Amino acid sequence: MEKKIFYNVDEVAEMLSISRSHGYKIIRELNHELQEKGYRTITGKVSCKYFDEKFYGLQTA
Question: Which domain of life is it from (predicted)?
């Protein structure tokens, strides 16, 4: 099984127990932060690594 690279809005909403619309807002905010750091992003998806760092304080290798 391959390791997941991106979370979609349904996964974000489920993990945080929020609505899909709020999930999209969070994804937009996180992707904006990544873009300011010079990274490319995909609309409607967020990097699993970045999401986990921001919400759970986890740093993965």
Answer: Bacteria
